[in-house]
Amino acid sequence: MESSMSFAGRQIAITGGCSGIGLAVAKTLLALGAIVYVADIAPEVPEYFTSQKNIHVTLRCDITDRQSCQDFLNSIPGRLDGLVNCAGTSGWEGKIGTDEVYRRTMDINVAGTWNMATEALQRMSTQEDIESPGIVPGSVRSVGQGSIVNVGSGASLRGVSGLAAYTASKHAVLGLTRSWARDFPKMRINLVAPGATDTPLAEASIASAPRNDPDVIIGKAQIASIPKGRMAYATDIADAIVFLLSDWSSFITGQCLPVNGGNF
Ligand SMILES: NC(=O)c1ccc[n+]([C@@H]2O[C@H](COP(=O)([O-])OP(=O)(O)OC[C@H]3O[C@@H](n4cnc5c(N)ncnc54)[C@H](O)[C@@H]3O)[C@@H](O)[C@H]2O)c1
Fold first, then answer.
1. DSSP string for 49-88
2. 137 C-alpha to center of ligand 1: Å?
3. Are 246 and 178 within 8 A, CB to CB?
4. How far apart are CA 26 and CA 232, in angstroms?
5. What is the distance in A from the centroid of ligand 1 to the CA of 89?
6. Which end of the chain has a smaller Cβ tally under 10 Å, C or N?
């Protein structure tokens, strides 16, 4: 039976799709029939992609470089149905972080999202506004010109000790999301705000944080306070992102969807 959340023939671009949450989004979309285009600064294609047909990976693509973003999107022929801005960086900064970490964090998380999304918006906002049949006979869904999902964080919504630059960057991504949703009403532009998620990034963040500091929340104490009792799997976050890319979210735009196991 065909999945009622089919992405057959849909073309979706993902930044940071070679690891963690972005990789889980790519795998989910491939399973649902999408044609997936990944841009990542990584030097190697993940093993999983080598057995897949509908995947195109642009390696060593740095989203902080505007031209690289333009070249990546220009490599995608035809309609661009969706974009997931997932590439990001994080790590323990300390109570007074360095200028270097601040600049790098803002550059990747904010300027990178800005670069890829503004290039995509120029293209997607001139695309045909389409509808698809709903699950209820006779109903329709307004797919519009396409969907952009930005990956924020719980730090898009509250302060996080020792992560001021990261928190500022993720608040900024939420601000971009909300403004773009108003500027482009024929599109859907939303943000998913993951809580602690089991990925290489989280592993590195936890490893970089000091031990025995009661203010450090990117560690065991944070995980212990998650009502569901565990970190998210990358697939938990991917499911929410894929929902917001899908026709099932046709009337949702400008929203922040926290996915945190109840740790709001
Ligand atoms: N893991 C968590 O606990 C968590 C929690 C909240 C939010 N997030 C957010 O989720 C997103 C994905 O994180 P993840 O945990 O999957 O991390 P990850 O490190 O597993 O994956 C990030 C990917 O982004 C790529 N990337 C980094 N800088 C890039 C650049 N300049 N240009 C292109 N690609 C680049 C990396 O190569 C990597 O493949 C990030 O935006 C992160 O802030 C993660």
1. GGG-SSEEEETT--TTSHHHHHHHHHTS-S---EEEE---
2. 40
3. no
4. 17
5. 5
6. N
* C-beta atoms surrounding 72 within 10 Å: 22
**CA–CA dist 111, 260 (Å, integer):** 25
Whether the pLDDT of residue 211 is over 80: the answer is no
Query: How many Å lie between the centroid of ligand 1 and the Cα of residue 101?
Result: 15
Q: What is the DSSP letter of 197?
A: B
Any idea how long the chain is?
264
Structure confidence at residue 205 as a pLDDT band (50, 70, 90): confident
pTM, two decimals, is: 0.96
Q: 11-257 sits in which CATH class?
A: alpha beta
Residue 231 token pair: 């970190």
The pLDDT tens digits for 72-112 are: 999 999 999 999 999 999 988 989 999 999 999 999 999 99
Lookup: tokens for 1: 């039976």
Q: Are strands 140-144 and 256-259 parallel, antiparallel or unpaired?
A: unpaired
Q: Which of 35, 39, 74, 36 is nearest to 58 (CA)?
A: 39
**Quick one: pLDDT at residue 212?**
62
C-alpha span between 165 and 36 (Å, rounded): 31
- The residues that bridge with 11 in the sheet, in sequence order, are 35
Q: Enumerate residues 6+ apart whose C-beta is below 8 A from 59.
A: 18, 40, 42, 43, 44, 45
pLDDT at 119: 98
Q: Residues enclosing ligand 1, CB less than 6 A?
A: 15-16, 18-22, 40-42, 61-64, 86-90, 108, 112, 151, 153, 194, 196-197, 199-202
Band (pLDDT 50/70/90 cuts) for residue 213 is: low
